[in-house]
């Protein structure tokens, strides 16, 4: 039987002291920079604090597209470089003229206009300005013609709309008149008129029965069996009619005009 002796403690360390702490873990690998390409399903970063995120609207895209088109059109029509007109510039054909000829030139507006209109005698700045302004003027004229055409079309549509509005008002007035005539013709058959007629017929029938009975009692003499039978039959029929009318009026008062419920 073998016995292993315990290992002696290391020199300089007491058995009551705790062991030294383990070495620190290695540092984590560096994170990739923010310039890396996001994944396919990565979400956009949240907006900065104080700014709300709004979904792009179709109207915003339309306005942005219009602004881009206007910006592009503005850059496309930027003014070209036009040479400056010197203060002492004169046409080549006038440099060798006499003072009398120059005085005649200055006093004749038609001659000045002819010199300015001719490409061979005018300053290059005039030709460059005309080349730049001519398409713009033509575009403005075309836009003006389009506006005039739209104005004419709008005037026509407005006139047609006015005529249709007047016709509709006339039809509305005629419709109201027809409705008034119909209500006037059917006023005797209105619920109020029918109820008044029913109430009057009930009172009238009750008075009729009472009058027949009183007239029979007030007569003198002895009645025959036939007269008694006729009187009883007549009173029963009149009372039956009075009962039916009172029943109908009661049903009307209870809201059961449509039938027994």
From TrEMBL:
User: Among its keywords, does the record have Membrane?
Assistant: no
Q: Where is the signal peptide?
A: none
Keyword Amino-acid biosynthesis assigned: no
Where is this gene product found?
Endosome
Q: Where is this region: Disordered?
A: 1-56
Record field: transmembrane: none
Q: What is one GO biological process annotated to this record?
A: ubiquitin-dependent protein catabolic process via the multivesicular body sorting pathway
Which SUPFAM superfamilies does the protein's record reference? Endosomal sorting complex assembly domain
GO CC annotation, single: ESCRT I complex
Which keywords are on file for this protein?
Endosome, Protein transport, Transport
Which superkingdom does the taxonomy of this entry point to?
Eukaryota
For this protein, the record's Pfam families field holds: Mod_r (PF07200)
| Main location class | other
The residue ranges flagged as biased composition, category Pro residues, are 1-32
Domain VPS37 C-terminal: from-to ranges:
172-261
Instruction: Tell me which family the UniProt entry assigns to this protein.
Output: Belongs to the VPS37 family.
This protein's name: VPS37 C-terminal domain-containing protein
């Amino acid at each position: 039987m073998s016995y292993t002796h315990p290992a002696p403690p290391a020199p300089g360390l007491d058995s009551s002291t705790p062991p030294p702490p383990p070495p620190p873990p290695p540092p984590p690998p560096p994170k990739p920079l923010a310039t890396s390409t996001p994944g396919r399903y990565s979400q956009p970063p949240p907006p900065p604090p104080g700014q709300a995120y709004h979904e792009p609207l179709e109207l915003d895209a339309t306005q942005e597209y219009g602004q881009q088109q206007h910006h592009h059109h503005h850059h496309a029509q930027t003014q070209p470089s036009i040479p400056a007109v010197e203060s002492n510039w004169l046409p080549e054909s006038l440099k060798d003229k006499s003072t009398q000829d120059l005085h005649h030139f200055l006093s004749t507006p038609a001659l000045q206009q002819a010199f300015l209109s001719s490409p061979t005698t005018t300053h290059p700045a005039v030709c460059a300005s005309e080349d730049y302004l001519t398409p713009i003027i033509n575009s403005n004229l075309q836009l003006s013609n389009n506006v005039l055409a739209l104005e004419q079309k709008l005037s026509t549509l407005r006139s047609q709309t006015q005529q249709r509005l007047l016709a509709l008002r006339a039809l509305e007035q005629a419709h109201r008149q027809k409705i008034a005539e119909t209500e006037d013709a059917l006023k005797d058959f209105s619920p109020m008129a029918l109820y008044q007629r029913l109430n009057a017929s009930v009172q009238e029938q009750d008075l009729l029965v009472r009058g027949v009975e009183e007239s029979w009692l007030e007569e003198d003499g002895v009645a025959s069996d036939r007269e008694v039978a006729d009187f009883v039959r007549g009173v029963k029929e009149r009372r039956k009619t009075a009962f039916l009318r009172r029943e109908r009026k009661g049903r009307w008062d209870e809201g059961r005009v449509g039938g027994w419920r």
